[in-house]
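Intended use. Records like the one below are meant for learning the mapping from a protein sequence to its folded structure. Do not use them to infer anything beyond what is encoded.
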Amino acid sequence: QVQLVESGGGLVQAGGSLRLSCAFSGRDFSAYVMGWFRQFPGKEREFVAAINWFGDTTYYADSVKGRFTISRDNAKNTAYLQIDSLKTEDSALYYCAARPGIGGTPQYVRESHYSSWGQGTQVTVSL
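Structure written out for the chain above:
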């Protein structure tokens, strides 16, 4: 059974950066697509980014292109989300998610595309 544990969230000033981590265990990490979602208060989770099994193909929501970077280290069984030039509107609960699969462009933007989820890490951006 896949287990995902996010870390790296916190309180940061606008303009700063954060790197979120997602530790994966329970299966072969390199056989999974990894995704990041975020959830604003009172809203449903929204897709942020996804990365294929090898780490050479990524896919981003239009709203985060240019400031967010998804990556992975298969040797460490960890996926990352680098967030630069943070804005107050980036404040949300960030989740990582996993789905088995090794091919194609990871255009998996729906929650239903993923079979495993972490518990989330809170990002709060202040002025």
